[in-house]
């Protein structure tokens, strides 16, 4: 420690100057480091973007070759179809008889028919009895019109009114007790016929898949060239229904599997809508 | 078309009888019952129209006579018992008489007799105008209302 305060102060200043110098050196050092880092990073960025451009070019090339491949495949498909390859026949079904189809239609009709509840049947019977009574009265009234003297005006009016009570009304349909039983029979017969026909169709489709046969154009149009992996059973189910739909509704178009959408509501429209949706599902990539 | 309305009515009634026999034979449950009802209805309409013609033939002359009488009485009363208030009744009665004179039988099935009622009411109102003054209009109005109600469609 210096005893002279001036000397002491000078020594302190000297120390501080030294500190300052050290600090300056460190600052300079870090600045240099930062500049270096920035340079490296920008170089890396340039590198990456160059690589990206290269990849892009490659993808374009690949897309072109996929397109070429696609066209080649189409051409190949045509050649295969034109050649001797065995084709699956989903058009002719000699083993399915017209009667079976008729049974299905009857079953569908039975399902669509309105059912009378016992109360409704009772009410309808009552209405019919009422109508019959009115008809009887009206006929009596008309009968009296045949021999009334012309100047008995009030009688003429009364009987004419009674007659008119019947002309504006319609006799309700008789509820048939047998309808219900017959419908039940028709429904179960239709269901059985559908089951049998579906089995036959499914067997033929499975044979075609097993034998690597070519599917008809309409079939591939809606269901794709093959079952999607892991969903073969669903696909077969839908395929069977498509073939059954064509069979039931006499669709013969070689390209359009389901034909035009039916206008009126009912079984056919429901089935058409369902099949259209399901098939679209299978064609998704 | 038979010239005599009575003969025509009898004719129509006969064919209605035939149609009714077919209707009764079929019964309400048979499938062609609605067709038979329609055919019988045509026959009934024909009978009603034939009866209207009979009525028209019977009532045309009386209706015209009453209408003429009403007009004459209204004139006499208007001159002899002149009263401004009574003129309302007399004018309405004359208007009714004019309508009946122009077409004494009408077209709808119940028209001929309804017109007789209306014109009779007009005549009574005219004759009662001296004691009742304008209030007699009510009688004519009632007659016209009856006429309108009877021939409404």
UniProtKB/TrEMBL annotation, chain A:
Q: Looking at the keywords, is Coiled coil present?
A: yes
Question: Which superkingdom is the protein from?
Answer: Bacteria
- Comp. bias (Basic and acidic residues): 264-285
Name of this chain's protein: Uncharacterized protein
Which residues does the annotated region (Disordered) include? 254-285
Which keywords does UniProt give here? Coiled coil
Query: Origin organism of this chain?
Result: Lentzea cavernae
Where does the record place a coiled coil? 6-79
Taxonomic lineage = Bacteria, Bacillati, Actinomycetota, Actinomycetes, Pseudonocardiales
UniProtKB/TrEMBL annotation, chain B:
Does this entry carry the keyword Transmembrane? yes
Q: Where are the transmembrane segments?
A: 118-149
Q: Which UniProt keywords apply?
A: Membrane, Transmembrane, Transmembrane helix
Q: Which domain of life is it from?
A: Bacteria
Q: What is this protein called?
A: Uncharacterized protein
- Tell me what organism the protein belongs to: Lentzea cavernae
